[in-house]
Fold each of these.
Amino acid sequence: MMKKEIEKIGVFTSGGDAPGMNAAIRAVVRTAFHHRKEVFGIRRGYRGMIEGEFQKMGPRSVSNIIQRGGTILKTARSEEFFTKEGREKAYQSLKSHSIDALAAIGGDGTFRGALEFFEEFGIPAVGVPATIDNDLYGTDFTIGFDTAVNTALQSVDRIRDTAQSHDRIFLVEVMGRQAGFIGLAVGVSGGAEHILIPETKSDLDALCEEVRSWARKQKGSRIIIVSEGDELGGAAEIGRKIAEKMGIDYRVCVLGHTQRGGAPTAQDRILASLLGSVAVEALLDGETNVMVGEASRKVVRTPLRETWEKKKAIDERIVQLCGVLSG
Ligand code: ATP
């Protein structure tokens, strides 16, 4: 069967914003232009797709955005897109603009939506992984992760100064409801004494024993990094639990949304430029329902379903290393 040539690509960002989304939009628009294809930006993700918020884009509409955090196309979560009626409306909107393929920049929810949409209406979609959480199978890193880690790290470095000066225990909470990639990376690069992430078993008694040992070892800074989704709770709750058992003084710092914003790092800009561009090439090759990613320095295409059905493993070596280096 002859495949239909793609002429108009719709690009959108969806789910949580991540630094580097703009660099990815730029890469999609300029690569499509390079191949003489038209691009429409869809504002506010699936919500804008349903409501017909489209804007024609060309190389100049993505000038001066590579360095900006957030997303110029805005992002949203859409309850309506979970319904068949909502997706039908989105299809009619796309049809009325003759958009025949989608570059979907976001996380697993965005990809679930894209797959469901393809299965019902046959609009080819390629996913570009952009989420600070790095929790997608099929790519070593997601766009936004490196920036979020570096932003959190700057805060941890500052907290270390005050922790060291007061010999005080600090619990620093980082993002990661389901995944500890940010927690682990911030913990090892920030020289944390202990890291609590959802992927490893957290034991309050063992943690208290370790905290006691820090006084014996005369450790100055005593930083515990807590992923928000740890089984023992968030940083405030864990601090309370430790204090109840040991009666110690401690401080909590929740980094929260500061981790989402800011200019993307060079690494995120490069990854976004590469993956935005190869997403367009994949669509033009007739590919659909895949996410483009980079694994072991090679561009790879992974079926969308696998990106959430398979679990990306955390790096056990780094987990072990933190235990050794916290000495
Ligand atoms: P992040 O990882 O940063 O949260 P995400 O892409 O996973 O990003 P979600 O909020 O999970 O973000 O999903 C974005 C949107 O995708 C949802 O608001 C919804 O409109 C659509 N979506 C998610 N799952 C489905 C699904 N199973 N069917 C249809 N649409 C879906």
Amino acid sequence: MHEVKPFYQQHFGVPPAWAVRAPGRVELLGNHTDYNQGLVMALAVDKFIHLAGGPRRDGRIEVVSTAFPTPARFSVSAMTKEEAAPWADYVKGLLLQLQRRGVHFNGFNAAIHSTIPLGAGLSSSAALLVATALLVRKLFPYRLTETGVAAPPSPDSRGELPPLATPEKLALAKVCQAAENQFVGVNCGLLDYIASLFGKAHHAILIDCQDLRVEWTPLDGQAEVVICHSGVRHALADGEYNALRRHCEAAARALGARSLRGVEAKDLTARQGQLPEREYQCARHIVGENQRVTFGERALRAHDLAQFGQYLYQSHESSRDSFKNSCPELDLLVELARAHPGCLGARLTGGGFGGATLNLVATGQVEDFRRVIAQGYEARTGRKLESWPCRIVDGAG
Ligand code: ADP
Ligand code: MG
């Protein structure tokens, strides 16, 4: 927060009226389960998009970011894509969705400073959307309902608004998703926004993507989360993602289920012969991931991190062998992690085909772990490894 306020002041010449922040997130367990109506565990982590803002009177919006040199300047009545500052599509997309829901706002200035590494699997885009929505709420209070808006909340004597209630957070998550789907054109699920909004310090967020129920289980004890970024993103990733989605949906249809969530492991095994091999493999991964989230929750509630870590390894093996959304670099990172005595569990996190791994590492061994993995990774691939220890934090709002 401390860096965004001076940045705002430097650019706009006055201090900001408000500052907000939204955390990045990581998928802890439950891979590709979200669009299959399944179960997923996520964490909000201590990397943030900070946003400072203040009103202006001419109906114009100006947004600057420490990550991009060109400011975005546009008017409330004409929010279109602009080649000079494509990064601002997220801000515009979100504002358009708020407008569509009936939220009224006027011109404002905003400055962005982020500590979330871009495109490293921590979902900087989701945090930016959530933070933008929260800043607009500070400047022009609104209350979202499932379908539109209700009477806005009143600020208290210090000008603070009440925290967002659960239904408002869910409605906001849907607004963010619509912005990313419709304006930016990325076909993502709700998970990232829910994680950024519903995070709880020292807890994993458990999300049931069928009914959007959100719960928390403690993730505390003598272990920390470390993200290791492979530094690769394979060119076929987007096409592969869509293909996996189609396999999952086709498998559910062939099994007479609305989604793979409705398929039990034993039924899948019994009906293996009715599915093409690739669809069966994909279904096995998703059904297995749902089970691992359920078992993982039990392990966490019993404070059994060693057992929980085993589910992380199993999840990675299932990605590598069944779902086939891993790649040699991610497999290597998990192999190196497994060989480290401080590692309790490791797996790829997010879409796959590159990106990052999530590692659960014994407290006190984190620095040694990062050093050893980086050495091994560079020796075998010639690539420098970036890694980030993460604290689990409260969500935004
Ligand atoms: P991630 O996995 O981090 O979400 P994405 O490609 O989905 O990666 O989102 C990255 C995009 O989010 C950037 O291209 C930019 O448009 C926006 N973004 C992220 N961080 C910032 C920032 N600090 N300032 C401005 N825009 C940002
Ligand atoms: Mg993103």
Amino acid sequence: MSNYITTPIYYVNGEAHIGHAYTTFIADAIARHSRLIGEETYFLTGTDEHGQKIEESAAKNSKPTQEFADEISATFKNLWDEFNISYDQFIRTTDEHHKRGVQKAFEVMYAKGDIYKGHYEGNYCVSCETFFPKTQLIDDEFCPDCGRSTSTVKEESYFFKLSEYEDRLLAYYEAHPDFILPKSRRNEVINFVKGGLHDLSVTRTSFTWGVKLPKSLNDDKHVMYVWLDALLNYITALGYGDDEAKMDLWPANIHFVGKDILRFHAIYWPAFLMSLDLPLPKHIGAHGWWTRDGEKMSKSKGNVIHPKDVAEAYGLDNLRYFMMREVPFGQDGDFSQRAFIDRINSDLSNDLGNLLNRIIGMSGKYSEYIIDSKDVEKYHSKELQQMKSVLDSLDKYLDEIQMHRYLEELWKLFSIGNRAIEEHAPWVKIKNGQKDQALATVALIANILAKASLRLHGVMPETTKKIATALGFEMSSRYYKELILDDELLNTFTIEKVPPLFPRVDEPLIAEAPKAMPKADKQESENQEQKNEDNLITIDKFFETSLKIGLVVEAQEVAKSKKLLKLQVDVGEDKPRQVVAGIKEFYSPDELVDTQVCVVANLKPAKLMGMLSEGMLLAAKDSDGLSLIRPEKPKKIGTDIK
Ligand code: ME8
């Protein structure tokens, strides 16, 4: 079975930012995993270069459009190359073979009667490259998706009979419940289609930067609508309408997209494919939106994160891990250096890195860096059982692209390993002359690390290769088969000392303030610095604090303490947090349960009277007593307070 995986093709109107990197990382992780397990894999990415938006951007930069597109396209390609993205093809919609394929597809749809000529009257949002009927606009003028002003368009246009595909599309969603991932996004697509589909204008006459209509139509006033041109890249990359050599890779297994372009991929694209009598992709994986410290990233705000800066400062694999682990696939996520640093120090350095360091250290001390034991089953059947059940559970998360759950589960292997070391204390066994037992534990850990890194390879390719080198095996399909599919154990490991893979990070490594600052903002920033000296903080500083709405689900008095109450507060995470608060003199446990509070959610956990406290409640205290700060109206649990 082949596995054809794609990213969106990125518009060449600006450089890549962290959101683009995210889509590309996920697709790369899936592609690498797929290759490791021995599947025929084809991974496509590229750039989307036509349309009014690009034409206007080039004009603003006083460059010929093609030259402008060449330059920006190269910045994407160079970045993916620096990031070692394992794409098999980088397609550009200005590639001649792509244009030929698009013209061919247009001809086929036209010949079938799915495209007809008419007149378009309505509004167009250049930023979203989308037509909107008046009824959908905000205040009769503004784009319902991005809020920008739209322009009125009245021009001759060819239309695609999208309205005739409503029933077939609905039937398809019904029959393929996992076509749209995560499944929680399915309904929004279904409702959109049920709301009625208008025929889609698929050509424009008011500008020229697009693919021309096929010669057979003899109508050179028109160029193609950029979304028709762009979506077709997924098949022109395989040679559709040209040299069709790779078309046997079709249908794609998954198109990764951001939620902003789900509608185009889950409605228009399937309808185009139906018209072309081609099978539909198996999945559309729509991920959420990244913000920075709670704010939308935009050039005008100057808060765009450049993925290269972050990767250089923190490590590329660490960035990949953070982005895939931190945010449930499909949900919006926030990029904060604090959260990133926590993941590096706790998941990577503590859990994984330490385990590797310990095994290197022990193997050196006990057996001169050769781990050789056939006794793992004899002494560690419990751990092997636990390990197997974790490993067996992983595929279902991967199938649904729930990368954060996948990684969370995978990390249980390191807990099993760390626990086994504590329980079996190999250093004691060595002292007691039970070397075979000590080496069995060390071999268990080496096997845990080997198996875990085979399953982590897609997400952290370079790191896992280093782990394989340290343990003396290879990141290859052969080992994947033996250690994962056939569930074998390696008996012998020749250990190579490697420097610690995840040095701890104490402070943010890149400037919190926007990097490149527009001139006009410079004066303001200098003023800001002046203000800092007066004890004022910048907004960035303020956003370092994560404040959330929480619900008190349990409250207890702390015996022997006059002041403390022990609370369990739900802040929208997997489990409630324990918060120990000095409010006993002012509130009884009963009056707190089921009420909402404001929680400082990113404080370092602290111990109060031996109890862990994982947050702080906001309160105001004066001579009249203490009052908790609460939302004026109940809010969804976990909502960010800004
Ligand atoms: O839409 N958070 O291109 P595009 C997460 N050319 N992901 C983000 C993001 C953010 N803040 N910003 C961008 C286009 N993305 C079309 C696609 S496909 C046939 C044509 C990611 O340059 C996300 O995947 O605007 C989004 O879908 C993609 O970049 C859009 O990039």
